[in-house]
Amino acid sequence: MKISVNCSKKKLSIGKQTFDCAIGVNGSIPEAEGREGDGKTPLGTYLLRYGFYRADRIEEPDTQLVMHEICEDDGWCDAPEDAAYNRLVRLPYPASAEEMFRDSTVYDVVLVLGHNDTPPVAGRGSAIFLHVAREGYKPTQGCVAVSLDDMMKIVPDLPRGAIIEIGK
Questions:
Q1: For the range 113-119, what are the long-range contacts, defined as Cβ-Cβ under 8 Å and sequence gap of 24 or more?
Q2: pLDDT tens, position by position, 9-47
Q3: What is the pTM of this model?
Q4: Which of 71, 74, 126, 146 satisfies CB 3.0 to 4.6 Å to 86 for a cystine?
Q5: How far is CA 131 from the centre of its chain?
Q6: Peptide bond into 156 cis (omega under 30)
Q7: Where are the domains positioned within the chain?
Q8: Could you report the per-residue pLDDT of 60-94, keeping only the tens digit for each?
């Protein structure tokens, strides 16, 4: 099963279904040219590794993907110089890390893309996810985002080994 993202049209497709989506605030960029904090969605084909969800807000999504409950001390290291760069960490963490357990709903469901992770290259980008969009599909910091309703339609169709292809 493949998810396709058309960045110029801000559309995400899976099978015969098409959904609105948000992308990076600064558009998209070829994967090899992307840099930490550039606000651009990296173009390329990525494995959907696994996911997270907020059990205090929603039920565990029905999917073949491995899903983990987000804990209050979950973070994602975005410090290029750190050994845990682009990895899940426990907060507080001594290097820069974004919080996964948020007041906002954007990480109520998060799917981790296999971007810059085998192994991570310092500065090439971290925390590239498919997650829940902000109201009005406000741009992301480089992720792809869909509404919660659409996410809950997409996730059940995803088998282990699903990929996402992000194109111009």
A1: 113/46, 113/47, 113/48, 113/49, 113/164, 114/46, 114/47, 114/48, 114/49, 115/31, 115/42, 115/44, 115/46, 116/42, 116/86, 117/49, 117/86, 117/87
A2: 999 999 999 999 999 999 999 999 999 999 999 999 999
A3: 0.97
A4: 126
A5: 5
A6: no
A7: 2-167
A8: 999 999 999 999 999 999 999 999 999 999 999 99
Long-range contacts of 68-74 (CB under 8 A, 24+ apart): 70/100, 70/101, 70/107, 70/110, 71/101, 72/101, 73/101, 74/99, 74/100, 74/101
Q: Are 29 and 42 in contact (CB under 8 A)?
A: yes
Using alpha carbons only, what angle is made at residue 19 by residues 87 and 86, rounded to the nearest 5 degrees?
Answer: 10
Question: Which letter does DSSP use for residue 107 in this model?
Answer: T
Counting every residue written for the chain, the total comes to: 168
Beta strands in the chain (DSSP E): 2-6, 11-14, 17-20, 28-30, 41-53, 67-69, 74-77, 88-90, 97-99, 109-113, 129-132, 144-146, 163-167
Sheet containing 97-99, strands listed edge to edge, beginning at the edge strand earlier in sequence:
88-90, 74-77, 97-99
- Give the DSSP letter of residue 31: G
- The whole-number pLDDT of residue 134 equals 98
CATH architecture group of domain 2-167: Beta Barrel (2.40)
Please give the radius of gyration of the chain, using alpha carbons only, rounded to the nearest integer: 15
